[in-house]
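Case study.
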Amino acid sequence: MPKKVIVIDDSATVRQQVAVALIQAGFEVIEAADGDEGVEVIGRTADAAMVICDVNMPRMNGLELLEAVKKDGKNASLPVLMLTTEGQPQLIERAKKSGAKGWVVKPFKPELLVAAVKKLTTLA
Amino acid sequence: MDAKSLTLLDDIIVAACRAVFEGVGAPLEAVETDRRDTDDIGASIGFTGASLRGALVLISSKRLIKKVLPVEARRGEEAAKVADWMGELTNQTLGRIKNKLLAHGVTLEMSTPTVLFGLSLSRHGTGSSVRREFCFRHGDETVLVSLDALASPGFDLTEEDVAVGPGVVEGEIALF
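After joint prediction, the assembly is written out as follows.
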């Protein structure tokens, strides 16, 4: 049974880039286009192995999503990796404190992303 | 902003735009403004901060953005794909500028992109105190990047301080 990774990004192109890399590595990918939709998808995917989430998105941004998701105790061990153009140390620190497991600055290298996903889904 | 700050800002804008397009296989050559009648696409992202607020605009021929679409994204409705990718390239360009400016004492918040289609798009500054514009060419295609902003009175970029730069740089992953 492939592990499920939820990919949340307002760019459909980025979601497809991530999805292709992960599917080729044996993962199943579920997509969401913004933070609101992401929260809804996480809520109905009890067996998700991991979340990859953009930061700057319409409606609800990625840090707000992270904080909302981690408030729910059942998601405490769900790894969340932030994938963004942002590199600001304060934002990275906020994500870390809120329970994110990593931070990737776009453009991402598919092989590095897959390695990180494998590591985080194995540890979870 | 003083002349030194503007030169620094220019270098940052040009480097960011070139890095983004080089990363998608379209290295850019700087040229004098040389827009032609083309079927264009443009994207704008607003930004705000304590000392600088404005927008970054990227304009390109639609043909070039279609050419640099990632292979994974070539299925589906073309106009939507090209618009989405133009928005993302603009997002990555402003992201690089923003991350580089951290080391010069500037912290910015970004909005999400707005994408426009049209023939021979051009931008008109509206009373901005900082107006920087650069034109590039990749083969027969042109790319224009402009940054219009209002700077706080007396604001200048500080000397680069790498200790306050981005926590993670483009292409890298930090695991906690």
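Observations recorded in class. The longest helix of chain A spans residues 110-123. Chain A has a mean pLDDT of 95. We will return to this complex in the next lecture.
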